[in-house]
Amino acid sequence: MSKPPKKTKKVVIIIPSQGNDTNAFEDVAKKLKKDVYPGATIVKTTVTDSSGDLSVSFKTTDGHPFTFDATHDVSRVVTISHSFSGDGPNLAYHDGGYQPWGQKDSELSDSGKLFWESVGSSLGSDGKVILLGCFMGSGTYAGNVAKATGKHVYAATDLFGAGDDKTALKTVRAIEKGGKLPSPMKEF
What we know:
Rossmann fold; 26% helix
C-alpha cells in the first residue's frame, strides 16, 4: 500500500533588495527553500520614499510582481532582514533605513497594520509568521503582528544572525518540529 503524497507547504520568504547584507539574506532564503521549504516563493521588496510616504513593491526572484491579495492558503511567511529593537523588518538598512511596517507608540503603524492584515488574510488555517532578524520579539512588535494576522508569530528577543544560514536553518527547523525554540526565539 503506497503512502499518500506529502502536501507541499505554500511558503513565502520575504527579503530586502536594498541596503546592507541583501546577498546574505538571499543566500539564506535560497538555503531555506532548498533544505526546508521546497517550492517556496522568494520575494524581494523595493521601498520607495516619496516625501516620507513609503511604498513597498514585491517581485519574485524571477522578476514577476507579487501581492498577498492574490495569494491564498499560505502556510508560512518568513521575513529575513535586519531589524530594530521592538520594531519590524528593516528593508534598506544603511540605505535609507526603511521600516515601512514599523510601529508608533507601541502599535503598528497604519501601513504596518495594513500589510500584516493582508498577510493574515493570505495565511491558511495552519499559517505562521517567522520574523528572522534582531529584536523583533523584544518589545510589542511581534505580538502586534500576531494580533494583526491572527496567527502564531516567532521572533527573536535579542540579536539574531538572519544572514547566517546555519542559524536560520536551525531556528526554522525547530519551529517546524514544534519543540523547544532555540534562544533567542519566542512564540507570540
